[in-house]
Amino acid sequence: MVPVEYYMLLSAAVFCVGVFGVLTRRNALVFLMSVELMLNAANLNFVAFSQQWGNLVGQTFSLFTMALAAAEVAVGIGIVLVLYRNFKDVDVTTATSMRW
């Protein structure tokens, strides 16, 4: 059986990759994928601790987080499409000109 520390280390690495993507990239699609990586890291922690403690609460939270991620992607893709229609680019820094 794999120790929980390995899952936590993998989760921390995936979360750090997601944070790096959010903080350094300007492309909206890469931004959304990085947020998904962070959510998947949290899901990995939920499932690992659920398996360690022998209950299903972590897996239930993981399913809720997956549903939340699916809704976030649907809204995010809509925002990306509007951004591309208005500015012909998916760079998130160009959206500051949408202000009054």
TrEMBL record:
EC annotation from Swiss-Prot or TrEMBL: 1.6.5.9
UniProt cross-references to Pfam families, sorted A to Z: Oxidored_q2
Oxidoreductase found in the keyword field: yes
Organism lineage: Archaea, Methanobacteriati, Methanobacteriota, Stenosarchaea group, Halobacteria
Uppermost EC category: oxidoreductase
NCBIfam families: PRK05715.1-2, PRK05715.1-5
Gene that encodes the chain: nuoK
Originating organism: Halospeciosus flavus
Subcellular location: Membrane
Annotated transmembrane regions: 6-23, 30-49, 61-84
Name of the protein in question: NADH-quinone oxidoreductase subunit NuoK
